[in-house]
Each structure stands twice: as C-alpha cells, then as structure tokens.
Amino acid sequence: MIRKLAAEALGTALLIISVLGSGIMAADLGAGNVAVMLLANAIATGCMLYCIITVLGPVSGAHFNPAVTLAFLLRRKLPPRQATLYVAAQIAGGLAGVWITHGMFDLDLLQTASTMHRTGGAQWFSEVCATFGLLFVIFGGLKARPEAVPALVALYITGAYWFTASTSFANPAVTIARGFSDTFAGIYPGHIPGFIIAQVVGVGLAHLILPKLVGRH
Q1: Among residues 185, 187, 186, which one has the least CA distance to residue 37?
Q2: Could you tell me if residue 215 is left (phi over 0), alpha (psi between -120 and 50 degrees) or otherwise beta?
Q3: What is the secondary structure of 108-144 as a DSSP string?
Q4: Are 75 and 61 in contact, with CB atoms under 8 Å apart?
Q5: CATH number of this structure's domain 2-214
Q6: In the chain, is it the N or the C terminus that has fewer CB atoms within a 10 Å radius of its CB?
Q7: Region 57-86 average pLDDT
Q8: What is the C-alpha to C-alpha distance for residues 59 and 8, in angstroms, rounded to an integer?
Q9: What is the pLDDT of residue 109?
Q10: How far does CA 142 lie from the centroid of its chain?
Q11: Could you report the per-residue pLDDT of 151-193, keeping only the tens digit for each?
C-alpha cells in the first residue's frame, strides 16, 4: 500500500508540474498569445500523462485523480479505505507539485490565491463533459485495448484542452492544487467547489451510462 500511495502522490505531482510549468514557461518566453500558451499546456500535459500512466500504472493503477478513484470505487474495484487513501495521496501530491514548480521557476513557494477566474454554467457543463469523456476513454480502453490506455488518456486530455470551455481540468486534486498557483494555469479558489461538483456529476453519469455502453471491466 505504501508503494501504491507513493505512486499516486508522485504521479499527481508530476501531472501538476507539467500543467503549471508549461504555462509559466510559455509566459516567461513572452508567448503573450493565449492560444500559444494553451497549446504549450496541452502538449506538456499529454506527454506527461503518457509517461506517468505507462510507468506507474503497474504500481497503483495510475489514477492520479479522485474522480477516477471514485469511479473505480463505485464499480467496486477498490475498497473504500484504499480509495480514501488514494484521494489523500493525490491531493498531497498535487500540492507538492505546485511548490516544486514554483521552486523551479524561482517563484514564491506559497503564493497568494490564484486570481484566474473560471466559473459559470458553460465552464461547469464543460467539466461534466470532460470528466465523463475521460472515464469513457479509461473504461472503454480497458475493455477494448488495455495496453493503449496511456496513449488514449494522453490524447484525450491533449484534445480536451481545446474542445472544452474549461480546458478540461476533469480532476479534483488538480483543481485544488491549481488554486494555490497565481499563474496562467491557476483557478480562483472560490470557483473550485463548482468545478469539483461538476466533476462528481460527470462521474455519476459515467457510472450510470458506461457499463451499458462498453460493459464492465
């Protein structure tokens, strides 16, 4: 269990580093154009997801996301105690990833809360859709071609940065962590609850629909 929790914490930390670090680097390079900065975010995140899922999947299952853990819990593929510990490790890893990223770019480790506003019905609906789509890719991939799941998730998130209004957080641990970084990829803390509620709704819809569509893994 210690190895599993360490893998979940490390994987989530690396995921956050890829999200925040790519945004900060794009800004530092003077990319001013938001589209270029978003492209940097998408590519870096997709690359990191492929790596961490491939390497750490055999250790912990490579959730790195409380929404994914909740989905496995609802399918009774994970006991409640392990699911709770996974979520705690993911949140801790996400926060560690924020501080590591700030350290790499010579920023204050503990920043004031993010001022990046992300709220409203379109954003919340996007998070419902993004989370549902992520779980569709994971469980559909596990049923059809398990060895392709790292690539499927990486490709899905890279694309979802662009086809969702919210840029596809689809991850409560990442959402919480990004509230502690006042950078391009941050989120104002007051808007975090709305995102997390939407993500949980996405999990609920996936739990109801996906078993009928792709079967149970």
Answers
A1: 185
A2: left
A3: -SSPPPP-----SHHHHHHHHHHHHHHHHHHHHHHHH
A4: no
A5: 1.20.1080.10
A6: N
A7: 97
A8: 9
A9: 82
A10: 19
A11: 999 999 999 999 999 999 999 999 999 999 988 888 999 999 9
